Amino acid sequence: MRVELAKVGTSKAFPRVQQRFHLFRDLLCSEGIRMDIGEHKLGQLVFYSCHLHTHGVVEICRYQLAETIADIITEILQVEYIRRILRCHYTGFDRVEEGNICAEAQRLAYNPRRRTQILFALLEYLQHHAYVHVDGFVRFRLRDYWEELVDCVDLAVGNFQEQKEHEEFVKLLKFFVEVQEPRIDTVQVMRRNLGGYSLVDQHFRPVDARLLHGLSLEPGSGGVSGEDLLLSALVTLAPVSIILHLPPDPLLGTIDEVFRQRIRYCPGCPLCR
Questions:
Q1: Where are the domains of the chain?
Q2: By C-alpha distance, which of 111, 132, 155, 13 is closest to 68?
Q3: Which of 50, 74, 186, 209 is positioned for an S-S bond with 202, CB 3.0–4.6 A?
Q4: Which own/partner contact pairs does 202-209 have at CB distance under 8 Å and 24+ positions apart?
Q5: Are 236 and 213 in contact (CB under 8 A)?
Q6: What are the pLDDT digits (tens) for 28-62?
């Protein structure tokens, strides 16, 4: 006697979803449980009907089906949901930008415990219902999960826009440095004991303040960080060569990007101590 375990619907055909259902069937077969999975379409909708031919295994198979659907949601459909949210809430991104944002949102959405939460929600639902439309289940039964995806997309878009603004800022500074005449050949940068930075020339003499047009390198000057003040000073001087008497520091990343071909780190000298 054939028993219908459940019917599962998706909004459109996904080859990986089909493969996952076939894997589910084959896994049960390897355990001596016979199951047929029928597939039919109604417009864009795709339905997978799971029929059991082995008695006394409904609960085991229901659990395995819930695991299968949980995997489909988190491993296959989640990226589709992220793309759908992005296109619904934002416009103006080309395909490459959209792909980068979706990849970042997918990274932000990673949560090993989420699959377990989805699994338990599916188990509870399948105890009382023989039909589940995956997209509808996610939208109405997993609202917290959907809102988390929306938050991840928003954060990914914010990160992308921030990175794009940074790249444009660096590009502008590089252009400015390239077109202006150097005010000094070599600048050596050292960190002060009490914070901030000191600039000296190739002969270890303090850089003439007049070359900086009154720019102060005192930390906290005008509420600006020491690293930003240093960047402004170096852009103003546009030196041919910059020697940094300090270890590589992520806070100096923008300086590295703007002056990449002009910077070298001192391998070690009394000034570095």
A1: 3-173, 186-272
A2: 132
A3: 186
A4: 204/271, 207/237
A5: yes
A6: 999 999 999 999 988 888 999 999 988 889 999 99
Phi, psi of 264 (to 5 degrees): -140, 145
Q: What is the pLDDT of residue 4?
A: 87
Q: Strands 35-42 and 186-191: what pairing? A: unpaired
The pair of structure tokens assigned to 195 is 């914070």
Residue 132: C-alpha distances to residues 79, 122, 203 (Å) = 20, 9, 77
Of the candidates 173, 174, 172, 170, the residue with the CA atom closest to the CA atom of residue 162:
170
CB 121, CB 66: distance < 8 Å: no
**Residue 122 near residue 66 (C-beta atoms within 8 A):** yes
3-state SS, residue 83 = helix
Q: Is 43 exposed, middle or buried (0-12, 13-18, 19+ CB in 10 A)?
A: exposed
Three-state DSSP at 243 gives strand
Structure tokens given for 272: 């570095």
Tokens of 72: 């489909």
pLDDT, position 78: 96
Phi and psi at residue 51, to the nearest 5°: -120, 130
* DSSP state letter for 112: H
The pLDDT assigned to 273 comes to: 63
Are 78 and 106 contacting, i.e. CB atoms less than 8 angstroms apart? yes
